[in-house]
Write a structure and sequence with these properties.
mainly alpha
């Protein structure tokens, strides 16, 4: 159940969920938390908050001098790879080691924050609007008196959200639709 909750937090993409997820990353040594790390990393990557970068780098730092032996090491390597993928999805960087990420983050943080993208949500329609962090977008329904102050900020991403997941999901849905259509045609015959 915890994995489903974490997945939902990532899908919602609210920055307010980043802080508790970051605390879980800091508790990676706890066996219960450790089993949830793949879901935690995915959720953190979807949210894309700058506040998650230091805990992610800290997680990698704990493996800097690790030797990869045995089945437990294989699991650790998967977690390190998942953490690196999350850092890449959050920042756009391409580093692999904690020290490299730390140096890269110090050199790029200010620029990333200056070009960040805010996501606002209309409290009435729940439609999301994205735009530069330096300016609040206008709701498409702003002429309606109920929409005068309807927007609330839900997150700030350092880079645009990766579209790969949406494209893959669309392809999967299209494939399923074609299969369903073919099944219906086969049943008619």
């Amino acid at each position: 159940m915890a994995a489903a909750v974490i997945d939902s937090l990532g899908k919602l993409g609210y920055e307010s969920a980043a802080a508790p997820l970051n605390k879980l990353i800091d508790r990676a040594g706890d066996s219960d938390t450790r089993t949830l790390l793949p879901e935690i990393f995915k959720a953190v990557g979807r949210i894309g908050s700058a506040s998650s970068v230091p805990p992610l780098i800290g997680f990698l730092r704990s493996f800097d001098s690790a030797r990869w032996f045995g089945s437990a090491a294989a699991e650790d390597k998967k977690l390190v790879d998942a953490c690196n993928a999350t850092l890449k999805a959050t920042t756009g960087g391409e580093e692999e080691e904690a020290q490299e990420w730390d140096s890269w983050w110090r050199g790029h943080k200010a620029g990333l924050l200056a070009g960040a993208i805010d996501t606002h949500r209309c409290r009435i329609t729940w439609k999301r609007l994205e735009g530069p962090a330096s300016q609040k977008p206008a709701c498409a329904n702003a002429d309606d008196k109920d929409h005068a102050n309807c927007l609330e900020k839900v997150r700030t991403r350092l880079i645009p959200e990766p579209k790969e997941d949406e494209d893959a999901k669309k392809k999967e849905d299209d494939k399923k639709d074609k299969e369903d259509k073919k099944d219906k045609e086969d049943k008619k015959e």
